[in-house]
């Protein structure tokens, strides 16, 4: 697979062999740190871009933002950079662009343009688009495979008006599976930076777990967002949803969640708590969907109450440390 190049030394903000690049983005720790970052326009621009990515995630996804708060700062920054780019692509195809005046016929071109922007940022390490810049900062540092970004945009393109839909496995691969791989690449890069690199066997297992977790999340979303997808966006991810097919999908999700859970002990603790928290949030939502009649799923969005989310997140902290 074609990996992206590691960031050159300057783009890593003059990080030492042991320091994590995001540490040089923290201007609140000490006045001298703030002074040094202002002396480096590249570091300052990247800091502003990653701050924008974090703001996007906080505004659009409370569950994900809560779970990501459990990640170590050096990991959290990169995970939010990934999901911010995914969110912008979602907004292009999910109606926001049209609501603000873009003709439906222009949605695919706009997405294509954004893909070119993202890929160019991967090549150069810079973009005038702050979210694409933040994503490229992460992708180059964690050595993403370029095809992951291409596959992601292929799935997003199938959501554009008048586009041909992909078979469900291909759609889930691009919209969720590769996102799992991206996240795991960040975790692996963090482990290597900390002097505790994953073995090839551990990396392969955690890649499998990350892919399964991304797939499970997406399938939960299909059920949770059924009404919005079918009525609001005229999409048919689950064209024949019945009690029987819902039960099959819920069981499939349980299996993927279990597969992911079995690999979490291999993750660095800096990532494990947040991943377990996200896993547990979606597992709770999946069980609520299992108990909800299909006719209700078709008319209302099933959610986990905010207070229950907080309890789930709190329980994940001690549980993650005990994983073996």
From TrEMBL:
Report the InterPro entries cross-referenced here. Isoprenoid_synthase_dom_sf, Squ/phyt_synthse, Squalene/phytoene_synthase_CS
Pathway listed for it is:
Carotenoid biosynthesis; phytoene biosynthesis
Q: Mind telling me which Pfam families this protein's record contains?
A: SQS_PSY
GO molecular function per UniProt: transferase activity, transferring alkyl or aryl (other than methyl) groups
Q: Gene3D superfamilies under this entry?
A: Farnesyl Diphosphate Synthase
Record GO biological process? isoprenoid biosynthetic process
User: What keywords would UniProt list here?
Assistant: Transferase
Q: Does the keyword tRNA-binding apply?
A: no
Report what the protein is called: Squalene/phytoene synthase family protein
The species is: Corynebacterium macclintockiae
- Organism classification, top ranks? Bacteria, Bacillati, Actinomycetota, Actinomycetes, Mycobacteriales
């Amino acid at each position: 697979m074609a990996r992206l190049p590691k960031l050159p030394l300057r783009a890593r903000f003059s990080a030492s062999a042991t320091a994590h690049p995001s540490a040089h983005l923290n201007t609140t720790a000490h006045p001298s740190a703030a002074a040094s970052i202002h002396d480096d326009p590249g570091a300052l621009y990247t800091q502003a871009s990653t701050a924008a990515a974090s703001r996007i995630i906080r505004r659009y996804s409370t569950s994900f933002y809560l779970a990501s708060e459990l990640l170590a700062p050096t990991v959290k920054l990169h995970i939010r950079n990934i999901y911010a780019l995914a969110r912008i692509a979602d907004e292009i195809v999910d109606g926001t662009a049209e609501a603000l005046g873009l003709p439906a016929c222009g949605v695919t071109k706009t997405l294509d343009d954004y893909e070119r922007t993202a890929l160019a940022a991967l090549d150069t390490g810079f973009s005038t688009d702050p979210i694409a810049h933040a994503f490229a900062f992460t992708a180059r540092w964690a050595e993403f495979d370029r095809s992951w970004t291409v596959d992601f945009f292929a799935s997003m393109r199938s959501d554009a008006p008048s586009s041909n839909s992909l078979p469900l496995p291909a759609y889930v691969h691009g919209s969720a599976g590769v996102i799992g791989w991206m996240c795991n690449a960040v975790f692996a890069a963090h482990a290597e930076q900390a002097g505790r690199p994953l073995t090839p066997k551990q990396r392969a297992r955690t890649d499998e777990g990350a892919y399964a977790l991304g797939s499970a999340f997406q399938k939960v979303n299909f059920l949770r967002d059924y009404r919005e997808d079918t009525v609001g966006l005229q999409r048919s991810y689950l064209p024949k949803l019945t009690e029987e097919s819902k039960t099959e999908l819920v069981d499939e999700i349980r299996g993927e969640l279990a597969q992911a859970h079995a690999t979490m002990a291999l993750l660095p603790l800096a990532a494990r708590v947040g991943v377990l928290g996200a896993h547990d949030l979606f597992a709770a939502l999946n069980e609520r969907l299992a108990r909800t009649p299909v006719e209700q799923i078709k008319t209302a969005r099933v959610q986990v109450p905010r207070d229950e989310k907080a309890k789930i997140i709190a329980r994940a902290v001690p549980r993650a440390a005990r994983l073996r």
